[in-house]
Design goal:
The protein is an alpha+beta fold. About 35% of the residues lie in helices and about 20% in strands. It has helices at about 5-15, 20-25, 30-45, 55-60, 80-90, 115-125, and strands spanning about 65-70, 95-100, 105-110, 130-140, 145, 150. The strands form 2 sheets. The chain has a 4-stranded antiparallel beta sheet. The longest helix has 13 residues, at about 30-45. It is extended, with a radius of gyration of 21 Å. The mean pLDDT is about 90.
Length: about 160
């Protein structure tokens, strides 16, 4: 991967709100070049979406997350992909990964409450052809997500440096 492309991706991964102009200044390159690289990455589906990480706990919002381990039977000619596609198309599924180990898939889901997630598992997920078993773990508290500490208790004690 070209160095400039890699640097742009790293900056956008850290802060998706950065503008092409800000990135150009940070990397000491032409703004038009940054725009061109970003547009190309979007068209090639390297950049899929820009996300906002929200701490719903601070809003008091009713939102429950769960991690579900799923054992499946691979299908002839498509392996795990056929069953995986049927599962990841459910709107409750936030992310899903093929894993090594006892379970084949790990599925992250969200719902308004535990009963909603339990209903999803019992009526939708477990009834998908090829699903052998599931193991559900409810998230009790998020400490860190996508590299971001959700509620940093420690104050910054570094000395301020002025030019």
């Amino acid at each position: 991967m070209e160095q400039l492309t890699k640097q742009i991706l790293e900056l956008l991964e850290d802060d998706a709100k950065l503008t092409a102009k800000e990135i150009a200044v940070m990397l000491d390159v032409d703004e038009a070049g940054v725009k061109s690289v970003i547009k190309e990455l979007e068209s090639k589906k390297v950049i899929l979406k820009y996300l906002t990480l929200v701490n719903y706990e601070k809003l008091g919002a009713e939102k429950i997350s769960a991690l579900i381990e799923v054992r499946i039977t691979p299908q002839r000619e498509v392996g795990f992909d056929g069953v995986a596609e049927r599962i990841y198309r459910f709107p409750q599924v936030r992310s899903m990964h093929l894993m090594s180990g006892t379970y084949d898939l790990v599925v992250f889901v969200e719902g308004r409450n535990m009963q909603e997630i339990a209903h999803f598992v019992s009526t939708k997920l477990s009834t998908v052809e090829g699903v052998i078993s599931t193991n559900t773990h409810f998230v009790l508290k998020a400490y860190k997500q996508d590299g971001v500490i959700m509620e940093d208790q420690e104050e910054d004690r570094r000395l301020m440096v002025s030019p």
